[in-house]
UniProtKB/TrEMBL annotation:
This is Flavin reductase family protein. InterPro entries: Flavin_Rdtase-like_dom, Flavoredoxin, Split_barrel_FMN-bd. It comes from Coprobacter tertius. It holds the Pfam family Flavin_Reduct. Residues 20-163 form the Flavin reductase like domain. It comes from the Bacteria. Belongs to the flavoredoxin family.
Length: 166
């Protein structure tokens, strides 16, 4: 994979995140977890290129994001939907997702986990977080539809510090 500049990104992230999905990965080479996500975005905030992702506190990956400054977003391509299905439906607490999916982890210069199968990876450094709250929803039907009995997501805003592309 080669490093590219943020100005060289030519992705339609509405399609990339919403339809292709992504792996959110955090931890160290000794212990990490990854999960599938299809909610998030990319933009420009505080004069920095940023991503924003949403993780429920019940997810095992949440513990790793909380404990580490960095995380990665890996885009594997539509041909790897099977990997996404496993990483989105099974918990790393109970399953060795790396073994089950055949993902091949690699370590970046910053010590973050990326995957050989990834066609595009964003290496991100946390800048801000906030918890979604029922009282802040203007469209009041959203909590009942998406959070019925489940925890509200924590939103992370993170600076894109490296972009790696095949």
């Amino acid at each position: 994979m080669e490093k590219i500049n943020v100005t060289d990104l030519d992705e339609n992230f509405f399609e990339t995140i919403g339809k292709e999905w992504m792996l959110v990965t955090a931890g160290t080479k000794e212990k990490f977890n990854t999960m599938t996500a299809s909610w998030g975005g990319i933009g420009f905030l505080w004069n920095k290129p940023v991503v924003f992702v949403f993780i429920r506190p019940e997810r095992y990956t949440y513990e790793f994001i909380e404990a580490n400054q960095d995380f990665t977003l890996s885009f594997l391509g539509e041909e790897n939907k099977g990997i996404h299905k496993i990483c989105g439906s099974k918990s790393g607490r109970d399953t060795d997702k790396i073994k089950e999916t055949g993902l091949i982890p690699r370590i970046t210069e910053r010590g973050n986990i990326i995957f050989e199968q990834s066609r595009l990876t964003l290496e991100c450094r946390k800048l801000y977080y906030d918890d979604l709250k029922k009282t802040n929803f203007i469209e009041t039907d959203i909590p009942g539809k998406w959070y019925n009995g489940a925890g509200y997501h924590r939103m992370y805003v993170a600076e894109i510090v490296n972009i790696l592309k095949k």
